[in-house]
Structures are given as C-alpha cells and as structure tokens.
Design a protein that fits this description.
The complex is a heterodimer. Chain A is an alpha/beta fold. Chain A has 17 helices and 18 strands. Chain A folds into 3 domains: 6-134, Fumarate Reductase Iron-sulfur Protein, Chain B, domain 2 (Orthogonal Bundle), CATH 1.10.1060; 148-243 and 411-496, 3-Layer(bba) Sandwich (FAD/NAD(P)-binding domain); 250-408, FAD/NAD(P)-binding domain, CATH 3.50.50.60. Chain A is 33% helix and 16% strand. In chain A, the strands form 5 sheets. Chain A has a 5-stranded parallel β-sheet, sandwiched between helices. In chain A, β10 (355-362) and β11 (368-381) form a beta hairpin. The longest helix of chain A is centred in the middle third of the chain and has 21 residues, at 296-316. By secondary structure, chain B is an alpha/beta fold. Chain B folds into 3 domains: 2-89, Beta Barrel (Elongation Factor Tu (Ef-tu), domain 3), CATH 2.40.30; 100-211, Nucleotide-binding domain of ferredoxin-NADP reductase (FNR) module (Rossmann fold), CATH 3.40.50.80; 264-292. Chain B is built from 9 helices and 16 strands. Chain B has helices at residues 22-25, 68-75, 110-122, 142-148, 168-177, 189-199, 235-238, 249-256, 260-291, and strands at residues 2-9, 14-20, 33-37, 45-53, 58-64, 81-82, 84-89, 100-106, 126-133, 151-156, 163-164, 182-186, 206-209, 225-228, 231-234, 241-243. In chain B, β8 (100-106), α3 and β9 form a beta-alpha-beta unit. The longest helix of chain B has 32 residues, at 260-291. The two termini of chain B are 37 Å apart. The A-B interface holds A 177-179, 187, 215-219, 222-224, 243-245, 247, 253-254, 256-257, 259-260, 262-263, 266-267, 270-272, 276-282, 284, 365-366, 413-415 and B 23-24, 26-27, 37, 41-44, 68-69, 83-89, 215-216, 218-223, 225-227, 232, 237, 248, 251, 254-255, 257-259, 262-263, 265-266, 269-270.
Chain lengths: 497, 292
Amino acid sequence: MAELTPKERMQIPRQEMPAQNPLERRYNFNEVALGFDVETARREAERCLQCKNPTCMDGCPVGVLIPQFIRRLREGDMAGAVMAMKERNSLPAICGRVCPQEVQCEAACVLAKRGAPVAIGRLERFVGDYELAHRTCPLVRAAPTGMRVAVVGSGPAGLTCAVELGRRGHQVTIFESLHSVGGVLIYGIPEFRLPKWIVHAEIEYAMECFGIEIRTDHVVGRTITLDELLADYDAVFLGTGAGLPILLNVPGVNLNGVMSANEFLTRVNLMKAYLFPEYDTPIKVGHRVAVIGAGNVAMDAARCTLRLQHMRAEKEGGEPGQVYIVYRRSRQEVPARAEEFHHAEEEGVIFEFLTNPVEILGDEQKRVRGLRCVRMELGEPDASGRRRPIPIPGSEFVMDVDMVIIAVGTTPNPVVFLNTYGLERTKEGTVVADMNTLRTTKPRVWAGGDVVTGAATVVSAMGAGKVAAADMHRFLCGEFSESEWWPAQVKAHTAGA
Amino acid sequence: MYTILKKKKLSDVTNEMVLEAPHVARKARSGQFVIVRIDERSERIPLTIADYDRAAGTITILFQEVGKSTMQLGTLEEGDHILTCAGPLGNPTRVDKYGTVVCVGGGVGVAPIFPIARDLKEAGNTIISIIGARTRQLLIWEDRMRTVSDELIVCTDDGSYGRKALVTEPLKEVLEQRHVDRVWAVGPAVMMKFVALTTKPHNIPTVVSLNPIMVDGTGMCGCCRVLISGQVRFVCVEGPQFDAHEVDWENLLMRMQYYKDEERLAVEYWKEHRCRLEQAEQEAEEEKHRHG
C-alpha cells in the first residue's frame, strides 16, 4: 500500500470490533468481542497519524510504545510490533481486553478531538493474540543476579512486578492464596470478557521464560508471615489487591439470596459454577435479580446472571427473568468501562438509575423477596467531583426481586498483615507507600496496585508493579541500602485520593 | 498436589486421612482449618485440622461423607493425591489457664475438639470432656480424647454405647454440680446452639467453632458471614471460633440450608456418573478377557 496522506488516513473510519450477536451470547459464556482479523487490524493501524510528539503514550499507565507498535503492525512486521509492545507490556492480550482505553490512551489520541480515536486497545489485543498464537518474540532473561524476591499475590500488580524483576535476572517466587494464578483476572473477570486460557497462556509463558516459581495455596499472614518472607528473601512486593467485599449497611444483608459480587463471580469464574453439576460448586440464580452498583464488577455480575438465567430457561423452559442494575447516580456517572456498559444494555440488563437500596426484605423462610429503594436526585459536586446523590423524600418503593448481588466496592484483605510489624496502613486499610518508589514504611517491602490505591483498574495495578520493580531493582543492585530506605521526599500516597 | 499418606475408615461414613502438607503443618495450631479441593472440577471445602506433625510435615483431617465432595474424598486411597490444601486458616484457639474447662464434641466434631482439649490440658487446665454421636458406630477418637481429659463422659443418642443422652444432658449436670470456668464445643450447628442455650443460664463463657458454607476460605467472598451480636462477621478470617452466646443461630442454620437442593443434585449426578464409569470399566475388563 502506498504511503497515505494524513487527510486520507483521517478518512478511514474507525474499524468496528466484530462481536457475538447480543441475543445469542446471552446463552453462552464464550467471548463477546471476537477480535480483528489481519486486514481490519492493518486498516485500523493506517488511521494512526504517527504524530511527531505523540500524546497517546501519556495516557497509558505502563507507557506502551503505541506509535511504534502500530507502525510496525501496518508495515506487516508482526514480530517487530510484538517486540515494541513487549518492551513495556508483558501481558498485551489481557490489557487489550480489560483496559478502559476510552479514558486512557484513546482519550489522549489526537484523533479523539476530531471524532474517533485510533482503536489502540483493539490493536493491542490483536498484537497480543498474534503473539500467543505464533510466539515470535522469545523473552530474554538477564544473567542471574543471585538476589531473591518474594511477590505476594499473583494478580496484575504482582505478575507485572514478578515479570519485570525476573527479566532483570532476579530469582522471583510468587505466593498465591488461591489454587490458580492470576488474581482478579481469574476469579473476577468473566470468561466472556477475558477467556481464562489467555490468562493462563500469557502467564505461563512469562513465568517459564523468567524462571519464576509459583507457590499456590499459600495464604501470606497465615501460611507464612511477611516477616518470615523478609528473613528468606532480599526484597518483598505486596500486590494483594483489594479482595475483601464491602457489604451494604442495610437491614436484611444476611438473608439467603444476598451475596457479594465477589462470591457470585468467584463461584461462576474461578469455580465454574455455570457448569454445575459437572463442576461441583453450585450457584443459585434468581428470576429477578438486583445488582447494586455500576462499576465493572457490577456489569460482570449482571451479565453473568443474565447468561445463567437464559441458560436455565433453555434447559428447563420458562422465562429467563430480569436483571437490574441499581445505581444511585445517573447514566453519566457510570464508572464501568464504556464497552461493558454498552454490552450490558445490548444484552438486556435493565438500569435503575438514581435509585438507592435502603432495605432488603425477606419472606418467612428468610429468602429475599424484595428490595426497598429510594429515588435520588443529583445535588452539588462532592469530593470526587461527581454530583452528590440526595434521596428524594417520600419516594420509597419496593422492587420485586428474589436475589441481590452487592457490587459497591472492596477493600484490602487484612489477613496478609497478620503478625507483622512496622507496616503502616490508612484508616481505609490500604498500605501507605511512597508515590514515586512504592516503598512502604517497612524496609525491603514495596507495595502496589489496589492494596495501595483501593479498588482501581488492572492496568493501573500493572503500572504500579512496574514502578515498584524499577525501584526494587535499584535496591537489589546496591544503589541504595536499607538505612537509606526513606529518601528525602517522604510523601505518602494514601488511598481514595 | 498433596499426597494422602494414610487413610483409615473409622465407620462406614467417617474417614481419617493424613495428608502431606508441610506448608500447613509448619504453622498449624488447634482451632484452625484447611481448604481442600480434590480435582479440577471439585469445590473448595473447609475441613478442620484435627492433628498435625510438624517434623513429618503432615496434617490429619477427619470427615464424614455427607455430600458429594466428602463422598468422593472418601473414595481416595493412600498414595492418591488432591489438588489443593490451603492453610492453616482462621484464628487459632486462645489457649490460657482458665481453670476447669468442659470440652464438648459431637459427631465428627470430636476431631477438632481433640487438639483444643490437648492444648488446654497442656496449659494446665482441668479438662472434663463430653463426646457423643448418634450411634456407637459413629463415635470417634474416644481413646485419643481419654489421653487429654481428666474426666471423659461418652454418650450416644440411641444408647448403643455409653450413656443414652444428647451431649447437653451431661453438660447440664456438670454445670449444676461443679465449678466450670469455660466451655468449648464443636459439632453440628444445632448441637452447638443447644450447648449455648445450656451454658447461658449459668453464665459460663462458651466458645464454639462455626462451620458455615465457604467458597475461597480466605476472606474474599463473604459467603461464610454470620451475625455476632448483630454484626456481620466473616467466619473464615475472624473466626472460626466465636462466643456462643453472641451467635445468631437461626441465621447461621438458615444460611447453611441455602444450597440443600443443589447438594442433593450433586450427589445424584455423581452416583449416576460413577455407576456409569464402573460399568464402563467392567465392560472393558470383560472385553479384555474375551480377547485374552
């Protein structure tokens, strides 16, 4: 193809992502977005203007070399595209699927102001999937340094940190409490959004190349304490996420039929309850289900519910039922990734905006029979900059539901901090860490991801894993010592900011 | 992978297993539990650590075959493996010198009460143990309990062995006749509830070990939540032992029933599946003989 002019490039429409039909996909857990083929990917890549001073990279928490990988992709140099990608991101097939690109790289693309930004996320996924299928780019490990590192938690933060340190030749061991590696990528994000084989393939490959050892079934705090790890390892990274569900503080929260989104998603994703009784873990799905909250976790729970309802109707007859998302703010404030919100609406999830639950009602058998709610209106902006929802007096009503899933957030699991001293935490339970280095108040311990920031995104956790790894590497190379632990700029990074 | 080093059938439905799990044995203490998972398709189930051997790197678990998972676990033999053994989980028993402690164990609850009684005995307490089962065949670890008790009362519901009584009857008598400082009870939830009701009028601090449904067992899902003095608490990370007089028993019992239908379905599915497997193996065997 001859070199196009910028004007010609801008005339190419943003390429649509092929997806499973919304009516069909309600009956299965297969992936919704099907991915670009080579032609579509290259056509989309042609849209990139290759800016002299690219802004897109500023929008990426891990600083992916976006213009470089796109240029190679459109030149047909797939190995080169993969290499440019892996320079900054070891898990592109995952990021391409779960990053909120519309508020990151794509928001920073110059074309965003002129209509449609380059579909960077879709291209990233294409490159990631290409590499999974073709293995063009062997990951090269630096010569062993003899330094030993323990990484606690195998979610996005821990994995990224492990990969970055393994690449630099350190001997890394990951401690994971569950039986499977991947953290929220495995227990939280559903199969139809992020197929588990991709997570396993991407992780296993990196682990193998960098000689990373994995110890599953190790609950740090119980099986082994942080202080014991410090005795055995030169440095420790805490990437334990925010795994403890916040429950609603309303009457009826302990009725049968009320569960946290974490429980629901763990049953469905990690334990494969959608295949019960072939798999042992059961899940009960209501006919009229209210999911409280409108973040990614709420969308995932709602869309899993919808699928389980349709699969049940297909098997046993009867109506599938309804799934509601109950959210106290309005459509504009929905925090979920745009594509997930769109897909949920397409599939038939019903949204009750400006609605807040006040009580869960039970029948004689203590099962959920309804959700008492109050309508809200938006007042002045609050600390988060969003308009504060205020209850409208006298607007209470009862939603006829038989199951309630709570998806209003999570906090760090405190078990990891048992029997350890000198590790400062905030009131919210997050770990205090220096913003630039991610050093904690305990020498030789770094922390990053949701355990520091509170629940956020996969890619921001990956970014934190990278930042910590860079500082840990400096420490492991002897650039500073334990006595110089706190540099001049002691500036604590606290949660919720 | 964790190897089953020893297996002993204590009754038709009760099994004792010694598992090779050095990472758990290293830290295990009385009152704690493990999450086990048999194979790729299995659920994660909590089982109390009934004993441990740090030097050998082993733990002992004990279970009654009541559902699909425990039935399947019961089919495994020495040398077989299971995929998951995570722990030790939960808080260990708060061992102290209290004075006279009554340790009550019902059914397979005798297994978890054993290390608790042993620790309390070692701490200098006088131990009066009351153990019971539905019938003689289901009574376990009487000999072990005798070694850690100053006094041991044995009863069965049907009178086939020891005294014909529920454990709460001798408990009530002991409380009326003797000075007791603490009561520990482990067994079916209903039994623990009645132990709580029995000790309440005497105002004796009573500790129970709760056994709700769990999924991950590490604080992630909240399935095991109970109401303690009206507050939501997670049994897996904040328990499993709680003050019996603060537990909302009705709520716990109700939540434990939630998956009853699915549990029955899982057993039916498994039995049918197993039948077919056995049949297929038998046919293959016959086929071999015909050609052999």
